[in-house]
Amino acid sequence: LATRILAFEPGKITLYDGNYSQFLWAREQIKLAETTSNPKALPTFSKFENENREHRRVQKGLNKQKQKYEKEILEIEGKIEETENQLRELEKFLSNPPSGLTREELTNLSLKHTQLGEELNEALGRWETLNKLL
Questions:
Q1: Handedness of CA 89, 91, 96, 99 (dihedral sign)
Q2: Do β-strands 4-9 and 12-17 pair in parallel, antiparallel, or remain unpaired?
Q3: Which of 14, 56, 58, 123 is deepest in the core (most CB within 10 A)?
Q4: Vertex 99, ends 83 and 107: CA angle to 5°?
Q5: 1 near 19, Cβ under 8 Å?
Q6: With the CA atoms of 13, 16, 22 and 28 taken in that order, what torsion angle do they form, in degrees rounded to the nearest 10?
């Protein structure tokens, strides 16, 4: 994104603030002022400066939001890894449970497995949503 244009013209070099469209507009206004011999007709850049300031302000806000999303993604990735490890350990335990477990203990372990699966799905869904926003 151009914010300044350096114009090489016969016999002079001119620096224009703004993007290419603003440069073309300013150059046209200067030519018009030179042909009418009216020095007050030279362009002002206050409108474009305000637009550029607003653009920078919006961009800064977007960058902050992006950093926030990236931080949350890293936290979610840690949570996903932790939950997957817990599920893996629980599944390993449930695949060969000790013979002394009661029905209630097995039911609680099964509920824990379901809960971990739901937490994992929720974390994966949020992770996907955040990555789409980036």
A1: positive
A2: antiparallel
A3: 123
A4: 45
A5: yes
A6: -40
